[in-house]
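Q: Could you fold this chain for me?
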Amino acid sequence: MRSRRRTLKTVALLAAVSVGAMAAWLWRDPLALVHAEFARQRWVAGLSLRQAQVAGHRWVYAVREADRADAPTVVMIHGFTGSKENWYPLAEKLRGRYRLVIPDLPGWDDSERIEGQDYGFVAQSERVAAFIDGIAKRQGSEVVLLGHSMGGGIVALAAADHPQSVARVGLFDAAGVRFKDNRFGAEVLAGKNPFGVEDEASLKRYLDTVFYIDAAKPSIPWPASRAVIDWRKQQAPFEQSVLDRIGRGDERFLPGQAAARIRQPALLLWCRQDAVIDSSAMDLYAAQMPQASKVLLDGCGHMSIVEKPDEVAAAVEYLINKGEPR
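A: Sure. Below is the predicted structure, expressed as structure tokens.
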């Protein structure tokens, strides 16, 4: 009996020490749990992190080799306020079959940002093309370039202007055309940042805007939420400068115009409940890209690549295996 009580005391003491250590860990790094979850997703997808200097910037990117040396290379470009981690759920579904290369765009997340540089559609599309030629492209492996939201606009320009670098192209919930009016678009045109985060309420509004499926929304408990809010507040001037270019400036419709020059096999994928880039944008892109397959998913919002990774993976497989050029 005495031995049992001693064992229980030991277990309780260890538990208390563990809780104390966890609290200290989170106090030092409030985003530790968020980083741990991203690391878990990266491990599940079989990805590893690398760095490279391309187009005057240090890029951080995730990569996974394919099971076959001649498998296509799938390059994934994230959207506004996004990062490479947005693609991890899709990467898990595609692992093994393709070589996966997923960068943080220059200016965003872990990649380098240089004061005074241009991070609009055109400049980023040239950097992406340079990244493909310098890092992603491999002899005997065609490049499939996918872009989400802002990344879709960047990808449209890169595919149109650098056809020798891109064999197939996918635009997911892509910016770059004049879609049907919604609240997000009206706020952008009014000079606001609908994705701006300043407090708990605006963080919730941001997540509610980009996600339709509640279960797909990332869990950001306190103190991680505090750290995310502080970080996003620091990013506000940069986000505004980018939005001024891609949402209100002369570049905002360039991707849709460039789409007419895309000859490669193509995929257009949207969610019916997208509250950011209305699904009417898909038909506007399709009018410029008659060779494109169209996929309209139901029951998801702007984050199709997180909310419906199985369906998106199936569409990517179709693009690679059956997509036709013009």
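A (continued): The beta strands are 48-54, 57-64, 73-77, 99-103, 143-148, 168-172, 266-271, 293-297.
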